């Protein structure tokens, strides 16, 4: 919110000069206070949402057709935990695409580094879980720094192709397993020797659910901090016009590298939690197809929106996990062949949903929600004259709300 153009003068002695106003900084302070007041309801709502989600394992709730059972059952907690981790991973891709405007086809590489890195460290060493995760995160930072420093020498589709090449190389190493570390096509199971008993076994799925939720909250807060920091503002400027940033003395390469490394590090952290939840690693997490899946989640929710990335990832994960049951149901089996054949393919249904969202909801789910809120604000409560509730001399609601 911009400070007012003129503030009433408060002279101490003598005659106030024209334009004399409040002490320097009062306008900025008022703007900061207004920003805090505007953000407070969202912060309170977000905190309450986290509390509610944290209490789900203690409740007996269910959504027929969406959840496989009650929220306290291991199967449901497994699905919800997977939703929170994929949402956190989508947030890390949001930092690349939505904040700094980098289209990467190799983001899954860092997620796979977290999954396989922790699995290998736990299997080949006696290091406990937390120190092992710290070692893997350090490795993720190093990997992202090296690849980012090389990839960001080019821009646009060339950058996307370079990241794809690195991701494909990583996938080949995982599948071929030349060092006898990753288990090849069969993957690698979680070695539970260094893992606390509270995170091992189906009976402890509740604890893994809380870990997944904590990872999502941490990732969201870090993404929020990055976006509101000086580096985040510079990244947004680079996204809009990199040449102009360079002309005014900015360093777009450094800004993009910082955001790239932070996003990759967060993806590595999400990968370590994914290993615990799934109790193993498979080559599927290292493929370029998996990166495209993350991209679909972000586009589905709305590029540039944090909560859109979360909603898109959760929706995609639930559909991906539950459409298989619908495709194999008796209702589909009894349909004519012209309908039964396509509806029996879960990926066809998922792709159709994505196409419909892209065609009829530009800006994704977040964009559609934003437009709906704007329409409500423009209408406002109807007064006697058919306008909004603004009184005499006041602006209508749609004009009073800053864009």
From TrEMBL:
Keywords: Cell membrane, Membrane, Transmembrane, Transmembrane helix. Coiled coil: none annotated. It comes from Myceligenerans indicum. The keyword Cytoplasm does not apply. It comes from the Bacteria. This is Branched-chain amino acid ABC transporter permease. The chain crosses the membrane at residues 43-67, 79-96, 102-122, 129-152, 208-226, 253-277, 292-316, 347-369. Residues 382-391 have a biased composition (Gly residues).
């Amino acid at each position: 919110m911009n400070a007012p153009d003129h503030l009433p003068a408060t002279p101490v002695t003598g005659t106030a000069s024209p334009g004399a106003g409040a002490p320097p900084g009062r306008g900025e302070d008022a703007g900061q206070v207004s920003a805090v007041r505007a953000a407070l309801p969202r912060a309170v709502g977000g905190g309450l949402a986290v509390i509610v989600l944290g209490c789900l394992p203690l409740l007996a709730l269910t959504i027929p057709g969406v959840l496989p059972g009650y929220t306290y059952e291991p199967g449901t907690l497994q699905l919800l935990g997977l939703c929170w981790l994929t949402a956190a991973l989508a947030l890390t891709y949001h930092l690349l695409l939505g904040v700094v405007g980098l289209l990467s086809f190799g983001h899954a590489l860092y997620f796979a580094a977290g999954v396989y890195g922790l699995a290998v460290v736990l299997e080949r060493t006696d290091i406990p879980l937390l120190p092992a995760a710290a070692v893997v995160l350090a490795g993720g930072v190093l990997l992202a720094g090296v690849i980012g420093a090389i990839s960001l020498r080019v821009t646009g589709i060339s950058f996307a192709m370079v990241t794809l090449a690195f991701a494909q190389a990583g996938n080949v190493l995982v599948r071929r397993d030349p060092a006898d570390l990753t288990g090849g096509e069969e993957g690698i199971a979680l070695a539970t020797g260094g893992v606390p008993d509270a995170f091992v076994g189906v009976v402890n799925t509740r604890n893994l659910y809380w870990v997944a939720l904590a990872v999502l909250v941490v990732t969201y807060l870090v993404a929020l901090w990055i976006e509101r920091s000086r580096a985040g503002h510079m990244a947004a400027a680079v996204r809009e016009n990199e040449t102009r940033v360079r002309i005014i003395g900015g360093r777009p390469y450094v800004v993009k590298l910082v955001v790239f490394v932070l996003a990759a590090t967060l993806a590595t952290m999400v990968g370590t939690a994914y290993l615990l939840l799934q109790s193993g690693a498979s080559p599927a997490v290292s493929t370029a197809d998996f990166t495209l899946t993350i991209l679909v989640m972000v586009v589905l929710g709305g590029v540039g929106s944090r909560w859109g990335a979360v909603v898109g990832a959760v929706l995609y994960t639930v559909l991906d996990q539950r459409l298989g049951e619908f495709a194999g149901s008796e209702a589909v089996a009894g349909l004519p062949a012209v309908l039964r054949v396509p509806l029996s393919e879960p990926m066809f249904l998922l792709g159709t949903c994505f196409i419909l969202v892209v065609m009829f909801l530009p800006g994704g789910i977040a964009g559609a929600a934003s437009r709906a809120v704007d329409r409500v604000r423009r209408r406002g409560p109807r007064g006697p004259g058919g306008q909004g509730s603004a009184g005499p001399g006041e602006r209508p609601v749609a004009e009073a709300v800053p864009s």
